[in-house]
C-alpha cells in the first residue's frame, strides 16, 4: 500500500515522524489481528501515534478487501480494472486510487503485496502476453537501499535460466520508479497449498526437490537466494510446475559487494540460517540456502517452521534463536519416516560445514527418498541448538 504524505492522517507529522510511522506500519501490517494488541503494548506507543497507526491499518484492511474482490474477477475481455476509491477524507482514502501507468503495459489488478513490493497482473502490448509487474510498495518514498535491493532482485533473476525460476522479461523505470516485468504464474504459493491441504507430503517433497535443483543452478552461477520459504515458491495451477521467486535478498558469491550494512539482518525469522542472524562465525554461502530448503522441508513434514517466530519482533526473534532447540520432525510426529527426518535435520545443522556440501546433494537425497532408496543423510547429533 502506498501512503499519501498529504493525507489528513499525516497532517501534523514531521518528516521524521512520518518515517517512524511508516516503519511501524510496515511491522504491524504483517501481524495477525490476534497479535496486534500485544504488539501495541510492547511498543508503548503514544496515543497520537496509536491513533494514526490504527487509521493506516484500517485503510490497509480495505485495501486487502479490494485485492480479494479483484482476485475473483475475470480478465477474458482484456479490459482494465480499477480499484474502488473510498470517499475522500476517510482513512481509507490512503488506498491507491489508480494503478501505475507504464508504457506498453495495461495493468489489470493486484496479485499480491509484501513488505517491500507490490505485484500487479498486466497485459504487455508488444509482444502481447500476460505478465506480472513488480514495483516498490512505497514508490517515490522508497529509500535508496530499497531501490538497490529491488534492482538486485532483477539482476539476480535475469542471470538465471532454469525451468523452475521465474524469468525476468524487462527491467525499467517510469516516473522515477523502477519496475520488473516477469512471467505471470497463474497459481498459488506452496504455503497456501500446504495450509489448504491440497498437496500430500510426497507431492510437496517432489515440489521441493524441483525447487532445490533450481537453487543448485543459482548457486552454480554464484547466486545465493537467502530467503527461501514456502511463500516464495509458486505452483502453477494447471501444470503443478513449481517456480522459485523473490530474489530480492539474493547475494553474489562472485563479488565482495553486498546490499547490507553492519547490523543488518536479512531473511525471514524461522527460516533463516544462524549465519544470517549473526549467530555464526561463518559467512552467508550456498550452505545458507541448504538450511533454508531444510526449513521448508521441516514445514512440509510438521506443519510449522523449525522455529515459530513470526509473531514476535525481529530483535526478540534473533535472541530466541540463540536459546531454542530445533525439535526433530519425528519427535513431533512419530509417523514421519526416519529417512526424511534425517535429511531434514542434516540440512538444518547449525554449523554450515556439517550440512550437505551443496544444494544439489540435498536435492539428490530428496530424490533417493522419493524413489525408495537409502538416503545418505546421517545426523551428527540428536539436539540442534542455534
Short note summarizing the structure:
With 386 residues, the chain is α+β, with helices and mostly antiparallel strands. It contains eleven helices and twelve strands. It folds into two domains: 8-183, 2-Layer Sandwich (Phosphorylase Kinase, domain 1); 187-385, Transferase(Phosphotransferase) domain 1 (Transferase(Phosphotransferase), domain 1, Orthogonal Bundle), CATH 1.10.510.10.
Description:
It contains eleven helices and twelve strands. By secondary structure, it is an alpha+beta fold. The chain has two domains: 8-183, Phosphorylase Kinase, domain 1; 187-385, Transferase(Phosphotransferase) domain 1 (Transferase(Phosphotransferase), domain 1, Orthogonal Bundle), CATH 1.10.510.
Keywords:
386 residues, alpha+beta, Phosphorylase Kinase, domain 1, five-stranded antiparallel β-sheet, three-stranded antiparallel β-sheet, 38% helix, globular, disordered N terminus
Chain-wise SSE layout:
Layout lengths: L14 H14 L4 H11 L3 H25 L33 E9 L3 E8 L4 E8 L7 H15 L9 E7 L2 E7 L3 E3 H7 L4 H20 L2 E2 L8 E4 L5 E3 L6 E2 L33 H17 L11 H10 L1 E2 L2 H4 L5 H10 L11 H12 L13 E2 L1
**In order across it, which strands form the biggest sheet?**
1-2-3-5-4
- Work out the count of structural domains: 2
Shape category? globular
**CATH arch. level architecture of the largest domain:** Orthogonal Bundle
Q: What's the total helix number?
A: 11
Query: What is the share of helical residues?
Result: 25-40%
What is the CATH topology assignment of the largest domain? Transferase(Phosphotransferase), domain 1
Structural class: alpha+beta
Radius of gyration over C-alpha positions, nearest whole angstrom: 21 Å
Strand content: 5-15%
In sequence order, what are the helices and strands, one letter per element?
HHHEEEHEEEHHEEEEHHEHHHE
The CATH homology group name of the largest domain: Transferase(Phosphotransferase) domain 1
The average pLDDT value, as a whole number, equals 78
Q: Tell me the major beta sheet.
A: 5 strands, antiparallel
User: How many individual β-strands?
Assistant: 12
